[in-house]
Give the backbone structure.
Amino acid sequence: MALLVHKYGGTSLETAELVKSVAARIVRARGRGDDVVAVVSAMGDSTDALVDLAHQISPEPDQRELDLLLSTGELVSSALLAMALRDLGQEAVGLSGQQAGIRTERRFGQARITDIDSKRIRREVEAGRVVIVAGFQGATDDLEVTTLGRGGSDTTAVALTAALKAKQCLRYTDVEGVFTADPRIVPDARKLVDISYDEMLELASYGAKVMHPRAVELASVYNVPIAVSSSFSSAPGTMIHSEALMEGPNRIRGVAHDLDVAKVTVHGVPDRPGAAATFFEALSEEHIRVDTIVQNASAEQVTDLTFTVAESALSRAMSVVEPIVQRIGATGLETDAELAKVSVVGTVMRTGRGYAARTFEALHAAGVNIDMITTSEIRITAIIHSDSVVPAAQALHKAFALESMGEDLED
């Protein structure tokens, strides 16, 4: 008998019938002799509906109260799934994040898990119950309810898998696994049998929506295997683990894209020590993530500083940057919110060569202009106009033959 952690996303729980279908899947797992702890997201788009409702009440809702409000979506799913299981004859109990022992830092809207006291969950499992944990939430030491940010239920599931020393985390969603690209824009995208933590983290960080980056990072730290598959079929999914073994390591594994990109350029920044740090320290204090950074060579004691942020965070970023521009005497400020990222990812880049050349040749042949470039040890990212995402993703997918098993380049 194994202990498994299931995770069900909002699309898997969107209606009462789908909740019943998830309950039946869990009962089948119990019938195979497995104990189950299930982590649930809010039903369908209910989180978005709660955010909209909050903004109807207040243009800038208090973050503490907003976290309290948003946590209710997962509580609904937890309670309903427990009811459905009981109707099928399976003892079950729904728990909030706080009841499940999930402790977080005091940072509303983007809290991180600091500890999990799993005694209550273990006690319920030992009593033969399926435990349904409301994802995306926890509580501080002084019992303030916090949320973990969008996609936080994935993080809850991986953290519980590690804390409970469960066999694996089964992440059920509306797709059958991790694909070599988004099938909605690359029709010949192929489902991967498996993928490494490093590759999945890069894909997730640069646009792939199937897993939240923080969850993948946590899985890597605690060596938690994650199986991603569809809650609507029994087809085998994709295994995320320490090393991709089934399809060989010498391949580009996927193409990711991200439309949530904006560029900020500060002109005429005085070329003196600490000028750039002034901007990025202030942005960090406001929890605004900065990605690509480019600083031009100094000319006449001034330089231009360019960086990217999420388009959704652009207005907050500008409220931080504009006062600094005035304070340090920079000469100008401009933004571009019509950008996107397209990335190729594969651990083969650590030892192979020719991947950058093929990436940029493919984009050139597709008529895609590159605005900026950023790389990691296993990733190449081009920042392009948002209108070019589809031809760019399709060209890169074809260039690396990802519709089949991929293609090696010369080592």
Remarks:
- The chain has two domains: 3-174, 246-411.
